[in-house]
Amino acid sequence: MKINYTVKLLLPAITASLGTIGKDIDVEIKRDKQGNPFFSGKHIKGILRERVLQFKNALNEEASSFIKKYFGEEGNYLENNDFSKIIFSNLTLKKDKGEKTGNRHGIRIDRRTRTTIPQSLFNYEFLRENNEFEGELVFKDDINKEDLKFILASLFHLNFIGGFKSRGLGKIEVLIDGKDINDLEKIINNLKKDDKKINKDKINNDLIKYSYTLTFDEPLILKARELGNYVEVKKYLQGSTIRGALIELFVKNGIELDKILKIKASDAIKDKVSLASLFKTKYQINGEDKKIDKAQTTIIEVDGVKLERYSKQDFSIVGNEVSVKINPKTKSVESGLLFNSEYLSSYEKDEDKNFKKIELMGDVELPKDLINKNQVYTIYLGKLKTKGFGKAKITFKDYIETKEDIVLRIDKFNEDIPKDEKEELNNKTLITFDLQSDMVLAFNDIYNAQEQFKILANLSDKFEFNYSRSFVNTAKLEGYNIINNIRKIDELVFSRGSVFTFEVENYKEELELLKKIEEKGLGLRKNEGFGRVKICSSRGNN
Predict the structure, then answer these.
(1) Structural domain contains residue 124
(2) Predicted pLDDT of residue 533
(3) Looking at 366, 398, 430, which one is the last position of a domain?
(4) Where is 188: in which H helix or E strand?
(5) Which residues pair with 172 in a beta bridge?
(6) 195: which DSSP letter?
(7) For a 10 Å CB count at each end of the chain, is N or C smaller?
(8) Strand pairing partners for 343?
(9) Same domain flag for 174 and 150
């Protein structure tokens, strides 16, 4: 159940309180990639949680279990969770309202001498009064009516937002569908439950393959690793993340967990996977970058210009979400509990330099008739899903195989090898194994990448590894199992985009093995999208 609300600024407000080094303004308004100001869902969740707690304590009602139920608790994420947590969106500027900003100066006063502290002059940017922001709260459909009424009453009683509230900034008015707290009963009675769209009565053991298209409504945090209190993100979306989000969607809609654990999902990609063998000239030649695939040629420069690695990422990092833990008694920051996380943009620029939502594609295997084709479903991806991050729309359609025949791909790849380099290869055929997703290894250590790959792929000694045409990246896969709420052991992977190149005399004798590798994949956790391999995938602009 979704509730849309509007926040109107009655006094100026700022959306952030972080200094910006090297700027004319010391404290800037928090903006998204498009330059629009916003209040983060994390901030809204924090101030609403505080107001709910204040009212519960004032009424001498038990607050702890209520707060845990609707604002979060530790525990088994899927099996014991009834999904009662409220999901908060970011507050974004209303599209029909023009942004109005200003800036002010301030100083710091020495409390002892009552005089200005030297070099303490600073200035900050703010949003002027009458700016309007809109956001949404998502509740479980069967939420207790009295609990919902209490939470919405607390929402109406939010009176300040943003930073510098003690300086007279941030006074607001909250409305739901243009109504205030006097119409609370009417608002509750007019709420509509979401259309389910999940055919839970038709679930069966037959898995059907679908293509999916994914678009993003919010920025997202895809954790690569944690460095102390700092979260570093990865710039691509793994199939395991898609699978986990779909499992959560189905469990929320009343499907038993055991019946959907067999579903499979691929990585979500834009166009095609950027291979580690792709290089470009360090400087432009005749006004353009020259791209070379070094699995096909061993040259080190083009027209005297050196080559460097080229990689096209699905996402770009646009900012950092900084948060602190507040001591509820002292209302001050707890020492050592500053958290910082990179986050990824949900927008990119098209050829005309206009912003558009990022769109990714992939494939999934789901029980037959479980979903409706071409129907839009909402899923949540990555970290901080209840705090304004990770909301996405996914649609499914019939899967159509468009992959070119493996023999044609191998022949085309070898045709594009320079003639003199073919002679150096003694006219052997080059076979590249291009990783379309991370490959999870069944080893505790990487001691010899090519030999370990041959073991996993069951390649015979006829396959001779070509060192100069192979480009292998390795990484550790940190993870967290949302099904049973445990931290998983770090796993070793050959990274997505890695290229293993082998020479072979007569590859057609090995066709059945090569086809099986493409069909089944390699390594562990293949049902989560890991270990997908393509033989001699298209290069250049193909």
Answers:
(1) yes
(2) 96
(3) 398
(4) helix 184-190
(5) 9
(6) P
(7) C
(8) 319
(9) yes
Q: For 53-161, list the strands marked E by DSSP.
A: 87-88, 91-93, 101-106, 122-127, 132-138
Q: Are 75 and 60 in contact (CB under 8 A)?
A: no
Residue by residue, DSSP assigns 356-390 as EE-EEEEEEEEETTSS-TT--EEEE-SS-TTBT--
* Selection from 273, 277, 275 nearest residue 468 by Cα: 277
Long-range Cβ pairs for the range 508-513 (8 Å, 24+): 508/407, 509/462, 510/460, 510/462, 510/463, 511/406, 511/407, 513/457, 513/458, 513/459
Domain that holds residue 82: 2-190
Q: What is the mean pLDDT of each run of 10 residues along the chain (542 residues)?
A: 92 70 64 84 90 92 88 57 84 78 81 85 84 92 90 93 82 90 89 75 84 93 82 89 92 86 91 90 87 91 88 79 70 70 83 85 92 92 89 94 87 91 88 95 92 95 94 84 60 94 93 94 91 89 46
Number of H helices, E strands in the chain: 9, 30
Q: What is the DSSP letter of 421?
A: H
Within 8 A by CB and 6+ apart from 228, the residues are: none
Same-domain status, 169 and 96: yes
Q: Tally the domains of the chain.
A: 3
Cα–Cα distance between 384 and 378 in angstroms, integer?
16
**Cα distance between residue 148 and residue 131, in whole Å:** 27
Q: One-letter amino acid identity for 406? A: I
The overall longest dimension of the chain from CA atoms, in Å, is 89
What is d(CA 531, CA 524) in angstroms, rounded to the nearest whole number?
Answer: 7
| Final residue before a domain boundary, out of 341, 370, 398 | 398
> Which uninterrupted H or E stretch holds 174?
strand 172-176
Residue recorded with tokens 């969740």: 45
Q: In this structure, what token pair is assigned to residue 475?
A: 């990484």
Which tokens sit at 477? 């896969």
Tokens representing 250 are 């189905």
Q: Is residue 286 included in any domain, yes or no?
A: no
Give the domain CATH number at 478: 2.60.40
Q: How far is CA 152 from CA 5, 131, 192, 194, in A?
A: 10, 22, 15, 18
Q: Are residues 392 and 414 in the same domain?
A: no
Burial class (CB in 10 A: 0-12, 13-18, 19+), 217: middle
